[in-house]
Amino acid sequence: MDAVSVVTLAGGRPDHLYNLVLGLGRQTQRPVELIVAVLQDEPYVLPEAPFPVRQMMMAAPELALAAARNTAARATTGDAIVFLDMDCIPTPTLVADYARRLDEFDGLLMGEVMYLPGNATQGDWSYDAFAEVAVRHSDRQGPPADGIQLCTDYRCFWSLNFAMRRATFLASGGFDERYVGYGGEDTDYGKTIDQAGIPIGWIKGGLAYHQYHPHHMPPVHHLDSVVRNAELFETKWGYRTMGHWLHAFELMGLIDQAPGRPIRILRRPDADDLALTGQQSHQPYSNTTTVIRILEARAAA
Q1: Most buried among 27, 47, 80, 215, using CB within 10 Å?
Q2: How crowded is the C-beta side of 101, counted as CA atoms within 13 Å?
Q3: Who contacts 149 (Cβ-Cβ below 8 Å, separation ≥6)?
Q4: What percent of the chain stands above pLDDT 70?
Q5: What would the pLDDT profile of 257-292 be if each residue is shown by its tens digit?
Q6: DSSP calls for 90-145
Q7: What is the pLDDT of residue 151?
Q8: Do residues 17 and 85 make contact, with C-beta atoms less than 8 angstroms apart?
């Protein structure tokens, strides 16, 4: 795979996208292009890059992540596509790692992700400094010791950092564009390619560092779209996805998800909900599992 395109989605956080471009400029194998699906009104001001950068303005009233990924992917020219979230900084061998593994594996490959705490990217950052402070997400499986490890559960797919041969992605039909807003489109795509017999795997390498930004887990700030997309998934596949988030929402008294009827939103998240689920500056990532433990302990008490 000599010709590798990179695709990212971007809205807000200009410093994160700037750092992603810097990281791509330091690759041992340069991408043939970067396609940025821009989910805001204005294009970004980006650093000079040793490869073409194309910003595609997405005219969408909501967070249309699935449609934006598909549009950007169709615009690529490479033999392979690396999909990398805008808050990731690729290590110098990320493109080469994916290119080498896709030569031997026609499927979906997921690279490593390590999480940075706040302030790690301030100033003239370095990969050595990142390696000293980055941590792995406790809810995610680590990479294999070497090579490729097959994933036997499509729910392991996460679109943060993955790659496929371009022809395979296009033949799969891409992401279901009925998913609008946050949540569900990843799991749906994992299910889709699993049903199509396209394998999913983790690789050793393909490492990206995730830049800190405040977030909520479970994503109470996206309550409406999580509920809507969970019901879309159920209509399509016969059961709901994002069950851990829905369970947390139920424990918080935000929803009623009694089986056999649509999910009902009972109230809006309040300040206490946001404080419970919010990521703090000393935390490299937020964690739904931790919040559920707190909620279940409260319920038991």
Answers
A1: 80
A2: 28
A3: 143, 201, 202, 203
A4: 98
A5: 998 899 999 999 999 999 999 866 566 777 788 889
A6: E-TTHHHHHHHHHHH--SEEE--EEEPPTTTTSSS--HHHHHHH-B--TTSPPPPS
A7: 93
A8: no
**So what's the pLDDT on residue 143?**
83
Residue 218: is the preceding peptide bond cis (ω within 30°)?
yes
113-115/255-256 β-pairing: unpaired
Residue 221: its pLDDT value, please?
93
- For residue 252, the model assigns a pLDDT of 95
- In sequence order, what DSSP letters do the residues of 247-294 get, joined into one string? HHHHHTTSEE--TTS--EE-S---HHHHHHHBPPTT-SS--HHHHHHH
Give pLDDT tens digits for 140-176: 777 888 999 999 999 999 999 999 999 999 999 999 9
Contact between 292 and 244 under an 8 Å Cβ cutoff? The reply is yes
Q: Which two structure tokens, joined as six digits, stand for 127?
A: 């990969």
Q: Say how many residues make up the chain.
A: 301
Mode of pairing for the β-strands spanning 200-203 and 148-151: antiparallel
Residue 8: helix, strand or coil by DSSP? Answer: strand
The distance from CA 189 to its chain's CA centroid, rounded to whole angstroms, is 12
Q: What confidence score (pLDDT) does residue 289 get? A: 86
Q: Name, in order, each residue with C-beta under 8 angstroms of 175's C-beta and a sequence gap of 6 or more.
A: 65, 66, 67, 69, 70, 185, 188, 189
- Residue 212 corresponds to which tokens in the numbers above? 């800190």
Q: Which whole-number Å values give the CA distances from 287 to 104, 219, 264, 272, 284, in the listed order? A: 35, 10, 24, 17, 10
- Model confidence at 66: pLDDT above 90: yes
The pTM (predicted TM-score) of the whole model is 0.94
Cα→Cα distances 164→73, 132, 143, 236, 289, Å: 11, 30, 17, 24, 30
User: How many CA atoms lie less than 13 Å away from 44 in the CB half-sphere?
Assistant: 28
